[in-house]
Amino acid sequence: MLTGVGAEALITLAGTPPMVGASDTVLIGHRTEGLDAASAAELVRLPSDLRSIDAPAVVRDAVAAGRQAAAWLAGRGTGVWLHLDLDVLDPESLNAVTYPQPGGLDWDQLADVVAPLARSPRLVGVSVADFRPDPDPTGDQATRVLDLLGRTLP
């Protein structure tokens, strides 16, 4: 929505869209293979100048993916906002999300890709989305999320 894709009532909340230019945005860890029809349609709607590193590339080399994302964002805009959507993780690592899908990252890969972005002196904020406590009655998965944030964020 920030890049001007979505329901008009939402994308115009801050005035004329986009709120953030697509070329100032990096989508990291999204699945590109074995998608259902709705997920495939979402990928097609993404702006053509949106920078992206898909899940298979991150799985191959998470450190390089994180460095590439940080390099793309260096000097762009007035700062960097890190939005971490937890369904980027493979369900074997975290299943307490709304849309668990195979083919995602494990905890170490996520830490490796997030680290260069979190260390940026231009980081102005972080948001975390899509953790569902109901499939985590013991709180073990929530603890893993907090551990990840504690070891990657300054």
UniProtKB/TrEMBL annotation:
**Membrane-spanning residues:** none
Q: Which InterPro entries match?
A: Ureohydrolase, Ureohydrolase_dom_sf
Cited Gene3D superfamilies: Ureohydrolase domain
Q: Which SUPFAM superfamilies match?
A: Arginase/deacetylase
Annotated Gene Ontology MF terms? hydrolase activity, acting on carbon-nitrogen (but not peptide) bonds, in linear amidines; metal ion binding
Q: Which family does it belong to?
A: Belongs to the arginase family.
Q: What protein name is recorded for this chain? A: Arginase family protein
